[in-house]
Design goal:
about 525 residues, mainly alpha, 3-stranded antiparallel beta sheet, two-stranded parallel ribbon, binds (3S)-3-amino-3-phenylpropanoic acid, Fumarase/histidase_N, Phe_D_beta_mut, isomerase
Amino acid sequence: MTYTLSLGQRVRLTEIESTAVCADPVAIDDAVRGRVRASRETLEKFVAEERVIYGVNTSMGGFVNWLVPVSKARQLQENLLNAVATNVGPRLDDTTVRAIMTSRIVSLSRGNSAISLTNLEKLIAVRNSGVVPCVPEKGSLGTSGDLGPLAAIALVCIGQWKARLDGEVLPGAEALRRVGIEPMELSYKEGLALINGTSGMVGLGSINVAQAKRLLQAYLLVSALSVEALAGKTKPFDPRVHKLKPHKGQQAVAEFLWDTLADSTLAVDELDTEHLLSGEMGDETKAGSQSIEDAYSVRCTPQILGPVVDSLAWIEQVVEDELNSSNDNPLVDPDEAEVFHNGHFHGQYVSMAMDHLAIAMTTLMNLSNRRIDRFLDKSNSEGLPAFLCQEDPGLRLGLMGGQFMTASLTAETRAKAMPMSIQSLSSTADFQDIVSFGFVAARRAREVLENVAHVVAFELLCACQAADIRGTDGLSPATRRLYEQTREVVPYLDHDETITDYVEALAQRLLTQPGLG
Ligand SMILES: N[C@@H](CC(=O)O)c1ccccc1
């Protein structure tokens, strides 16, 4: 289905992801066309008046103070694209490139960048054509926006560099020829308009946020299942106690667990504490084999996932605001009949949001990592067999090895969660002297998410194994659905076998499949 951009509409971040995943075409309406034309005409008027405007009749970056006549505009703009397309490394996947292109189209369609309507429409045509520019992922400062990644895209639009089409890598000119698109011819400011913004980090960020939301949603249900499978107590989730602390996310998580576990007989309502005081002072008090209170990784679930929920809402809002912005310099506002030299290409907001996403997801992973340990350690699992190995323990090692994987991923992920947004380095003879590295932050958040999904997948595997051992009759209806969906992918393990394929399949579902459970 075509996704049409209208003037003044707020584009949802999740729409960038969904249109990129499905390769839905994007389009603009007449009001957008009118506004884009007006912005270009305003700039043309200023050029006729011989005003000095950055990237129009000046050079760029460290050569900002060099005048270049508009008669040389096409050469200047093409030189700009080639000079800054210096990224290296693995090529971004098709979905991410489409999300980045759509994010740039959203920004340019606001009609403040003075790109010609012809060239905006060509960018849209390339985005919709199946031609996917090859974008090496490493090398963006994130402040000139994402010059490197966006220049790789812009070069293909002018018939240079390289692109994929139906799985084949072709020269940009050949790729355009095959889909019947004439290369763009750039006039003054247009190369700059295509690249001088934050659309790289916003495009990749949109995918990260959409996946993080799914993973978090699923994790709330995984948490409920883990509480049941660890014979955890529900009373700490009673909404009445959460009224006593006003954090919204915490309250929402507690309410979810409370409601979900209401019909569970595996989770424990409350201990009958009456007979517990029969011992002498100093005796170990036990309620049968049960502890009086659960460990933090069960009991404090709302207090740990609450801030993750609230953080994600903030992160989504920030990246969505950036998406719906004119992130470019200079900007030409036709209503004000003004040109603004400005710094809207700066990616600090998104950089900090992506760092925050990495921290939030790592927090979730830390929780998951602790629960996995409880599932496998028989002294902490409220009666489960060691390493969830019911049949032939010792001859078999059970699920022991899964923890090696999750411990390794957890350690690696913590290192990846070190902030990028404070790593600024100066470049361009101190012209770009403080930068955001937002695209690097977004790439690292993506890596964090992938790792976290694998750790959560193993917790889910353990929880289902434990539920089978305890008896699944006691599951609540919602956790039973999750259990059954998981059993479509991984069976109860009564023999030792490699779990790699199971964990990877579950992780993929957690990131991409909405509404698990
Ligand atoms: N982001 C611009 C600078 C600016 O808009 O002031 C740029 C372009 C090219 C090379 C370096 C820097």
